[in-house]
């Protein structure tokens, strides 16, 4: 940093910026003061900066073309807006009145559509709540079934031991008939 003096600070925006009144003879630029590995590093820095600028420029060009495409799309969709975004002036009130009637008609149609969609949404929410209730009831029944099955599994091995191996093998039947529970 000492080697380049204030000229580097001026170029990098370090306070003074570029100035014409700097005495260039006071700044020493000779290669004797620079180390041998400094040139490749500055070359790499320039190459990296060039690459970054090139990438940013390409990105901005893509963004610009995207904005232009959107603008053309909106110009087609909304013909009252020209390329500069200013509204065109109508000289006759007749088309505006017709357009106003069309807008009112479309507004009422859209309002009707919104109402029907709101009703469908409410019905869907009601069905969803009913489905949640059915799922909860199913889960409750499944849990009760699991509890009953677990209790039954606990009872069968105990009753099998109490009655002996023949009773357990016959499924808990006593005398050939099913035991009533």
Automatic annotation (TrEMBL):
Xref: InterPro entries: TBK1-IKBKE_adapters
Spans annotated as Disordered: 152-181
Keyword Plastid carried by entry: no
Keyword Signal part of the UniProt annotation: no
Entry coiled-coil feature ranges: 50-77, 107-141
Comp. bias (Low complexity): 167-181
GO cellular component: a single term: cytoplasm
Protein name: TBK1 binding protein 1
Organism: Hippocampus comes
Domain of life assignment: Eukaryota
Keywords: Coiled coil
